[in-house]
Amino acid sequence: MMIWSPPLECLPRLDLQRMQAERLAGMVRRVYERVPFYRAILDRRGIKPSAINDLAHLQELPFTQKSDLLHHYPFGLLAVPLSQVVRIHASSGTTGKSTVVAYTRGDLDVWAEVCARCLALSGAKPGQVFQNAYAYGLFTGGLGMHYGAERFGLVVVPVSGGNTARQIMLMQDFGAGVLACTPSYALTLADALEARSNMPEMLRTLILGAEPWTEAMRQELESRWKVQAVNIYGLSEIIGPGVSNECVEAKDGSHICEDHFLVEVIDPKSETVLPDGEVGELTFTTLTKEALPLLRYRTGDLASVTTEPCQCGRTTARMSRIVGRTDDMLIIRGVNVFPSQVEAALVGMQHLSAHHQIVVTRVHHRDELEVRAEVSSAFFADVGAKLFADHANQGVKALHHIEDALKRRLHDALGLSVSVSLQPPGSLPRSEGGKLRRVTDERS
Ligand code: ADP
Ligand code: ZN
């Protein structure tokens, strides 16, 4: 087992907190001096930066929202002159302008460091070939992992996302030991590899993130790829990938790089801070960022955090999987549904593939949740054979049987009756290299 930076990842928590408090004080002073947006809010609230010298004071500080970044698009929140910025990234921005983030040389150094930690957490070994199938470009995934992997000492293959046939060829030819991509793309690649019936021999580790996934999906991917699959988390506003990563030893929550990112979990409605173990909205305060420092940034991601010791020996807090986002919760006839609940119920069911889609409509003033799921190729072949062998009834019965089973599973998981529509193999959208949208809400 390898810990990238033991002095920082295994600090006694009191020492860590002392370091965080010092860094927080410096950060608040800096944003007060350099970012008019923060100076105005702190002045309005009568907060003197010098009064923030303890972690307990964190709760007095204002939150920052995505809309604050958009209002100051593109560079209005920078704490350094643009000439000191050496890199710009931007998140996709589903509606209109995207969120722009900036990095100084120092920020890039921290970023490479935290991504190197994540690679060690994942169980990568220096010298392995690292296929980086996160998209390169404005998206933070590709370049973030790239520099982390170089720092860590991997043999980096910067293939970027997409072009599945080439991914597979390179994976085989170069002998990739570690692959990083989105979980939905790992599923696409698994399908393609199985169709050729050869899994890459040297591959040991999948590092998956940038979109939500479930334990059920981990089981599915680990058994098909015959490797360890670990979760990596991050967001552009805070740094990109590298905010947290599961340790392969425990796979029980993702260790947060707490010396750089101070985490809180808040109730998204009342904005009060929740205790360890309770699910709420993750907020992060950057402790070392130079170009774009953020106070209490509300991620919209829902998870819990624990500081219980981990069997791997690291002392950093661990966050649960993201159970949903404040903006992806569907309210169906008054019942709250997260897409991850559907995935957890469906993936691993007999005769179904893991590909699925969720469609929400309103019919006669009533919300309808439809889950589209693909039957497996083996099942499809079997039903087809029955139809042609004049056993059409049996085929239809088998279909109804799965449909009912899925309906029941979803009803138990969601507390809601849903409609289910089974689809032929290969018919639902796949990830072509990046994040996959599985939900369509057609209610206006
Ligand atoms: P974009 O806005 O272009 O999607 P970001 O990388 O900034 O780019 O997106 C960050 C968001 O992606 C996070 O706030 C979170 O919702 C999601 N995300 C990233 N990693 C994970 C993960 N491991 N599990 C669940 N969601 C994740
Ligand atoms: Zn651990």
Topology:
Blueprint: H1 6-9, H2 13-34, H3 36-44, H4 66-71, E1 85-90, E2 100-104, H5 105-122, E3 129-132, H6 140-152, E4 155-157, H7 164-174, E5 176-181, H8 183-195, E6 205-209, H9 215-225, E7 228-235, E8 240-246, E9 254-256, E10 261-266, E11 280-286, E12 297-303, E13 305-306, E14 318-319, E15 324-325, E16 330-332, E17 335-337, H10 339-346, E18 352-363, E19 366-375, H11 377-388, H12 392-414, E20 419-423, E21 439-441
Parallel strand pairs: 3-4, 3-5, 5-6, 6-7, 18-21, 19-20
Antiparallel strand pairs: 1-2, 7-8, 8-9, 9-14, 10-11, 11-12, 12-15, 13-14, 16-17, 18-19
Helix pairs in contact: 2-3, 5-6, 7-8, 8-9, 10-12, 11-12
Bound molecules: adenosine-5'-diphosphate and zinc ion.
Low-confidence stretches: none
- Determine and state the CATH class of the domain at 330-441: Alpha Beta
Number of strands: 21
Radius of gyration: 23 Å
CATH level-two architecture of the domain at 330-441: 2-Layer Sandwich
Overall pLDDT, averaged?
A: 96
Relative strand content: 15-25%
- Name every ligand kind in the structure: adenosine-5'-diphosphate, zinc ion
- Structural class of the helix and strand makeup? alpha/beta
* Fold-level CATH name of the domain at 330-441: GMP Synthetase, Chain A, domain 3
Which term fits the overall shape?
A: globular
Helix content: 25-40%
Total helical elements: 12
**CATH evolutionary superfamily of the domain at 330-441:** ANL, C-terminal domain
Distance between the termini: 51 Å
Strand order, biggest sheet? 4-3-5-6-7-8-9-14-13
Oligomer: single chain
| Biggest β-sheet description | 9 strands, mixed
